[in-house]
Write a structure and sequence with these properties.
Keywords: RNA-binding, tRNA-binding. This protein is α+β, with helices and mostly antiparallel strands and 392 residues long. It is built from 10 helices and 19 strands. The chain is elongated and about 70 Å long.
Length: 392
């Protein structure tokens, strides 16, 4: 089926909107053959009334949980078609039901606010802007959240110079995600004498055993991975905090992460961003929302007022890609399953984090002054503009 044929099946105002938005943007039809096929498939589905019936929004909400866009990882004509088809239903929902299907609401608001979509919708006059009280979004239960194991509870504190909230030693304990549990199990088996010949670094070389937390802290103890923000809202009970859903390539789904970046990075610059996440910190309760990781940020050498930026992985990175430190002592070492907050491992390593004159993220060994860039198999991670920035 061709693009024109699929659009012809849409109701008149929706089809007109799709054609208006795509008139000057051929990339919205899909950048590859597979993307184009998926775009046409979703336009076809958007023309079917069952997809956007209020009674079926629950299924669509589940489908949209890990997605920013419906057909690919960028805006396409399929998103315009789905937004237009959803508009009659969403616009008539009472305010009390706006967050009954939070992923649909988040997706709808993102697409309706996209400049080319908004401009064409305003010209056509058939798709009025729907206002949502995003500032007071109710807390959404994280379906992939692991079972809780209650312990002591205390307020969390930000790592110095970051604006990013991280756990303290006495935060409420929650079991780590499944992937971390498996690592802990493997570690115990190795202590008993069990081996894992299949444990290898990406690229084929055999990985060394997991780092032990005895002795001097080393950066390879820290579990860094590429993450993708698939959803972000402001914390319902804290003006300075964002609550993000970050895809880290785990079968359990995105992790909930709380970051103190509201006053430094606009929410529009957080949406759909790829970043580097610290994944083996102890989960922390942040003003009523459990945080399961930390985003790695660069803070200007002039301090927070000089700017804070997300550290960016190389282009074409995928969620879950391993991020490591260059150097034979660190490259092939498996990080700890979870950092022991009482041993202050991250706090001991963090002062050596910096961005070089090239804006490349690195760790400088305080003893030897050797420089170890932070990278994936595809390249080095960077800060967009900051040089000489601290990382945390």
């Amino acid at each position: 089926m061709s693009f024109q044929t699929s659009v012809a099946k849409l109701s008149a105002p929706v089809g007109d909107l799709v054609l208006a938005v795509t008139r000057n943007g051929q990339e919205l039809l899909g950048e590859s053959e597979s993307d184009q096929a998926e775009v046409i498939n979703w336009i076809e589905r958007s023309s079917q009334e069952d997809l956007t019936k209020e009674s079926n929004l629950k299924d669509l909400d589940t489908l949209l949980i890990p997605k920013t866009y419906i057909a690919s990882n960028y805006l396409t004509a399929a998103d315009v078609a789905l937004y237009g088809s959803l508009h009659p239903v969403v616009s008539k929902l009472p305010t009390s039901q706006h967050f009954t299907h939070p992923s649909v609401t988040r997706y709808f608001d993102h697409i309706q606010s996209y400049p080319p979509v908004r401009a064409s919708a305003d010209i056509l006059g058939a798709f009025e802007f729907v206002s949502f009280d995003l500032e007071n979004t109710p807390k959404v239960e994280r379906k992939t959240e692991p079972l809780k194991k209650k312990g002591k509870s205390a307020a969390a504190t930000p790592v110095s110079g970051s604006g990013v909230a991280t756990p303290t030693a006495n935060t409420e304990v929650e079991t780590a995600p499944v992937a971390q549990k498996d690592q802990k199990k493997e570690k115990k088996e190795k202590k008993k004498g069990g081996g894992d010949e299949g444990n290898k670094k990406a690229g084929g070389s055999k990985a060394t055993p997991p780092a032990a937390d005895e002795g001097e802290p080393v950066p390879s103890m820290i579990d860094l991975r590429v993450g993708h923000i698939v959803d972000v809202i402001k914390h319902p009970d804290a003006d300075g905090l964002y609550v993000e859903q970050i895809d880290l390539g785990e079968e359990t789904g995105p992790r909930t992460v709380v970051s103190g970046l509201v006053n430094y990075i606009p929410i529009d610059q957080m949406r759909d961003k790829y970043l580097v996440a610290v994944c083996n910190l102890k989960p922390a309760n942040m003003r009523g929302v459990k945080s399961f990781a930390m985003v790695l940020c660069a803070t200007s050498k002039e301090g927070k007022d000089g700017g804070i930026e997300l550290i960016q992985p190389p282009a074409n990175s995928k969620p879950g890609d391993r991020v490591y430190f260059e150097g034979e002592d660190y490259e092939d070492t498996t990080p700890l399953a979870q950092l022991n907050p009482k041993k202050k491992i991250f706090e001991a390593i963090q002062p050596g984090f910096i961005t070089l004159d090239s804006r490349e993220a690195a760790w400088v060994n305080p003893s030897t002054k050797s420089v170890h860039r932070i990278r994936t198999k595809d390249g080095v991670c960077i800060a967009p503009t900051l040089v000489g920035a601290s990382l945390s």
